[in-house]
Amino acid sequence: EIKRLAEIAQPEIGVLTNITEGHLVHLKTLKKVQAAKGELYDSLSEQGTAIVNADDPLVLELAKSVRAKVVTYGIHNKADIKAENINRMGREGFNLSVRLFDKNVPIHLPFLGECNIYNALAAMATGCSLGIEPDNIKAGLRNTKLLPNRYEITKQGGATIINDSYNANPRSMQEALKTLTNYQCEGRRFFVMGDMLELGDLAELAHMKLGTDITKYPIDYLVAVGELSAHAVKSAIASGMDKKQTATASEHGCAVAFIKKHVLPGDCLLVKGSRGSRMEEVVERLTAC
Description:
Elements: H1 2-9, E1 13-16, H2 24-27, H3 30-42, E2 49-53, H4 57-63, E3 69-74, E4 81-88, E5 94-100, E6 103-109, H5 114-129, H6 134-142, E7 152-156, E8 159-164, H7 170-182, E9 189-194, H8 203-214, E10 221-225, H9 227-238, E11 246-249, H10 252-262, E12 268-272, H11 280-287
């Protein structure tokens, strides 16, 4: 699909943010996902620009064979555009310094999630490739508004709800757990998850691994909606989580009932799942008057 779309659009700039275990129901393996995404870089001419995440080894591997100019970005590895001195500002987002080739640019990002730092760096790399001045890039990022169901923060009954229900895969679930852990919370932390879809034969195993990983974070309650997510709960309990602080639900209403029974002022809930899991319905029911 990417190859055909690129033939139509004939892009001059191609951006790959990461390559993860998504779309496996169709592509079967991570290497095939890599190959499919690599069609974007393959479509670029020598006059084009490939924007490359230097912290993602599969993206970096693709960049070795592109004809276009390569511009790298990242946090941990050497990159043309690199985030440094990252300071979390609670619900206000991040303050950081970005080394933009030979310039240092202070940046404020008004949203949660370290993954969004990567997105901002990719946007900066694209902006530079288009000739946009650093001050204009800085202003644009400062005024950016995320799309609905992506790290939206609301308050309800003294509790904080972080709505990241737009989509999910194993890597983004890990990022969500980090975000919930790092969020300044006076009370307890609830991780409210729906199924991760399109994982093919790895679906059950991926949910079981996620359940084990959840116990490595300071998560007080785990609430799961869906048959696949139930495997995460079973795995979390097997890894030491108190069964009384978990719930499995076949539909959103049961999950909402459990949350309402246990949530207290000062608690923080993060809600996430694949698009088909429609986990925004949990948020809507929790915040309904």
